[in-house]
From TrEMBL:
The keyword Endoplasmic reticulum does not apply. It comes from Paraburkholderia domus. PANTHER family: HTH-TYPE TRANSCRIPTIONAL REGULATOR, HTH-TYPE TRANSCRIPTIONAL REGULATOR TRPI. GO terms for molecular function: DNA-binding transcription factor activity; sequence-specific DNA binding. This is Glycine cleavage system transcriptional activator. One of its GO terms (biological process) is DNA-templated transcription. Keywords: DNA-binding, Transcription, Transcription regulation. Belongs to the LysR transcriptional regulatory family. Residues 5-62 form the HTH lysR-type domain.
Length: 306
């Protein structure tokens, strides 16, 4: 039999010690201030030591309290990790995702940060490859590639994303004032932000929706759309984007679509992985958490609910 103090008392002590304040500890644990005080006094009685010294509204740890805090925090972390392992088997180790630069820059950072909080036992690595690469990263569990559809991935589990469209996006301030952006004809007064070096993507959109428009005088070319979107956020000009690369900015209102019209992408994104990995819990959990299922055309293996 292990001789241990009350777990509630240890949790109350750890929260109070971390905050250096009984009231804030009570708020975190959803109990009253007096409940925290009672638990701490109970723990001090069991251990026969003084853990806190009061200084006004703040409390400071004694030497005994400092020694105990370190061990209690380690123990609580170990218990939390063990419970996470029990609830989510297979969610330990590492998960490596290789994505083109534009998605690595815009789509994945927030998702990976939230995912790592949900599954602290799993270390996520975000790898970046060139936007025009069709090579599967051998060091990654999941590789996301952009292809025109002429790539042979028959030896792999390859799932196409749903078709995407390109449309102009800009900072909301560009729609204000006398010289604002109101119609495609107004683009001639604005800088066009390109995610390619030959301007083909903008040329396709302009040829479809503004064929009579003179060539805009100002153009900036970037290595990928993630940087072009960043320039749009800085009010530099107007860029072409899609719901994957600019989805968060459009939802938050940091970027807007000045026109509803779009053009279909000539290619598509694909999620590619080794066939033997398609049913791994960590891959399925990440795809579910990241919302990738809504972007994919077909999932032939089940994705478990979290």
């Amino acid at each position: 039999m292990r001789k241990l103090p009350s777990l509630s008392a240890l949790r109350a002590f750890e929260a109070a010690a971390r905050h250096r304040h009984f009231g804030r500890a009570a708020d975190e644990l959803c109990v009253t201030h007096s409940a925290i005080s009672h638990q701490v006094r109970s723990l001090e009685g069991v251990l026969k030591v003084t853990l806190f010294e009061k200084q006004g509204r703040q409390v400071n740890l004694t030497d005994a309290g400092l020694r105990l805090l370190h061990s209690v925090q380690q123990a609580l972390d170990m218990m939390a990790e063990a419970c996470s392992d029990a609830a989510h088997p297979g969610m330990r180790g590492s998960l490596k995702i290789s994505a083109p630069a534009e998605l690595a820059h815009r789509f994945f950072p927030r998702v990976i940060g939230e995912f790592s909080q949900r599954y602290p036992g799993l270390t996520v690595h975000l790898l970046v490859h060139d936007s025009d690469s069709n090579e599967i990263n051998p060091g990654a569990d999941i590789t996301i590639l952009y292809s025109m559809g002429d790539t042979d991935w028959t030896r792999y589990w390859a799932v196409p994303f749903r078709a995407i469209d390109f449309f102009p996006v800009c900072h909301p301030s560009l729609l204000e004032g006398e010289e604002s952006l109101q119609s495609p004809a107004d683009l001639v007064r604005f800088c066009l932000l390109h995610d390619d070096q030959d301007g083909k993507t903008w040329a396709t959109w302009l040829g479809t929706h503004a064929a009579a428009l003179p060539a805009p005088a100002r153009n900036l070319h970037f290595a990928h759309s993630g940087i072009a979107i960043e320039a749009a956020l800085q009010k530099v000009g107007v860029c072409l984007a899609d719901t994957l690369t600019a989805g968060d900015e459009l939802k938050s209102g940091r970027l807007i679509r000045p026109f509803a019209v779009s053009v279909p992408s000539p290619g598509n994104y694909y999620l590619v992985a080794e066939r033997r990995k398609r049913t791994e819990a960590r891959l399925a959990a990440f795809m579910q958490f990241a919302g990738l299922a809504q972007y994919l055309c077909e999932i032939n293996s089940p994705i478990p609910e979290n």
